[in-house]
Amino acid sequence: MAVDTKKKDIREKKIVIKREAIPQLSTGDSVKVSMRIIECGKERIQMFHGVVIKIHPAADGGNFTVRRVAYGIGVERTFPYASPLVARVELVRHGKVRRARLFYLRDLSGKAARIKERRLSKEKMAILEATRASASDGPIAVSEPAADM
User: Fold this and answer.
1) Residue 20 to residue 138: CA distance in whole angstroms
2) Per-residue pLDDT tens digits for 23-81
3) What is the sign, positive or negative, of the torsion defined by CA atoms of 78, 82, 84, 90?
4) What is the CATH number of the domain that holds 110?
């Protein structure tokens, strides 16, 4: 009996959900993240504009951390790649950095905290746009536990 219930728990069915793909991010990039906020039964979109300071790849898709300075106070927020609450991620500009983690930005303020822009040639931009277009065409499969049979 116990073996049969375990088999039922292990089975999964695939549900296909059409979702906009998150662009290829790297540390130092300026991004606008659109989050779905649900308050009092109402849903709205809130933008979070900042610099990607950390990317954590993992088996579940991983997450990325965005930092911004609001009213003189540094705010960091971590977004999972696979979260349904992340409505959209828009890449504003590429940053020119030589580190994987930009924690040193926490100690800097004002003009010292700026990151130079990484400029791409027209050929590389065309390739990047082509890969973005092809990545956003395909649906993403999400697993859900199967119903009891």
Assistant:
1) 9
2) 888 999 999 999 999 999 899 999 999 999 999 998 888 899 999 999 989 999 999 98
3) positive
4) 2.30.30.790
In whole angstroms, what is the distance from residue 109 CA to residue 72 CA?
A: 9
Would you say the C-alpha torsion 23, 28, 30, 34 has a positive or negative sign? positive
pTM of the full predicted structure? 0.69
Residues spanned by the domain of 106: 19-138
Residue 91 within any structural domain of the chain: yes
d(CA 30, CA 53): 10
Instruction: Give first-to-last CA distance, the chain, whole Å.
Output: 14
Q: How many C-beta atoms surround the C-beta of residue 51 within 10 A?
A: 24
Does some domain include residue 5?
A: no
What single string gives the DSSP state of each residue in 89-143? EEEEE-B--S-S--GGGGG--GGGG---B----HHHHHHHHHHHHHHHHS-EEEE
Q: What is the DSSP string of 16-68?
A: EE--PPPP---TT-EEEEEEEEEETTEEEEEEEEEEEEEEE--TT--EEEEEE
Considering the chain, what is the average pLDDT of its residues? 80
| Domains contained in the chain, number | 1
Given a cut of 50, whether residue 14 has pLDDT beyond it is: no
The DSSP secondary-structure symbol of 4 reads: H
